[in-house]
Amino acid sequence: MFFKSKAKTEIDYERLPVHIGVIMDGNGRWAKKRGLPRSAGHSAGADTLKKIVTECNQMGIKYITVYAFSTENWKRPKEEVDFLMNLLLGYLRDAERSLAGENVVIRAIGSRKELSEEIQRQIIKTEEFTKNNTGIIMNIALNYGAREELLSAVRHIAGRVQAGEITPEEIDSGMLAGALYTGGQPDPDLIIRTSGEERLSNFMLWQAAYSELWFTKKLWPDFNKNDLYAAIIAYQNRGRRYGGI
Ligand code: IPE
Ligand code: IPE
Ligand code: MG
Predict the structure, then answer these.
(1) Which of 74, 197, 201, 216 to mutate to test the pocket of ligand 2 (most atoms within 8 A of CB)?
(2) What is the set of active-site residues?
């Protein structure tokens, strides 16, 4: 016998967020609280991620973008960066079997050229392996920063102007959005951030223009299905006006 949690029964499945963004924060503090190395927090966070993606997919959410490594995270000690890169490599490898089996489409967003060749190859492999799946589209933001994303989009468009393909007047918001890593995807409806920090930290600055933001003090490794349901219910109780009345 399965019992649905109370929160889950309150969700209106006709009005689910189409795209959820997640700033998975607090792994280090989670580990520290337990007297463990920060790496233990990252490993626990990776397990949480699997569970949450599986749940979102089962619920019928169409897109999830998860912030895994920012363009600023290179500032961390080499040991931690190396651990995170290895964890991500393992995650992408493992995803071919586990998440792909659940019909998830996996894509990496962010600047690839700074990543190791091994990770770059694995990204291509995992993307190729899952591209024909029909379940949730999971964007893993890996060496992602919204400012870098905007700069590279602007450079791309400027190149088209220089080549005489378009005039500056033809540049519109659709063209710019299309040149972002998320080109062709809807903007996130809901952005969740764990760990009590209430900022975007360079996550989806363009796409988040009208996203509903939801914060929780819970640290990412402790985040569970019920927290996800709570975020979705809070989202469904917001009035989205987009500047109207
Ligand atoms: C989020 O947890 C994971 C990454 C940024 C890679 P943190 O590592 O930022 O954990 P805290 O914020 O230090 O607790
Ligand atoms: C944001 O978390 C980046 C990721 C979750 C990958 P950080 O821990 O890097 O952000 P700040 O430094 O608290 O803003
Ligand atoms: Mg943090």
Answers:
(1) 201
(2) 25, 73
Q: Which ligand is nearest to the CA of 22?
A: 2
pTM here is 0.96
List, in order, residues 6 or more apart from 117 with CB less than 8 Å away: none
Angle, alpha carbons 53-55-57 (nearest 5°):
70
Token code pair at residue 160: 């088209």
CA 168, 173, 175, 177 dihedral sign is positive
Taking the C-alpha atoms of residue 46 and residue 125, their distance in angstroms, rounded to an integer, is 20
Q: Under 8 Å CB-to-CB from 200, ≥6 apart: which residues?
A: 23, 146, 191, 208
Measured between alpha carbons, how far is 159 from 147 in angstroms, rounded to an integer? Answer: 18
Distance CA 80, CA 92 (A): 18
- The strand pair at 19-23 and 190-193 is best described as parallel
Tell me which residue has its CA closest to atom 13 in ligand 1. Answer: 28
pLDDT tens by residue, 104-126: 999 999 999 999 999 999 999 99
- Residue 93: both structure tokens together: 């490898």
Tell me the DSSP string of 13-24: GGG--SEEEEE-
Angle at 180 between CA 53 and CA 177, to 5 degrees: 105
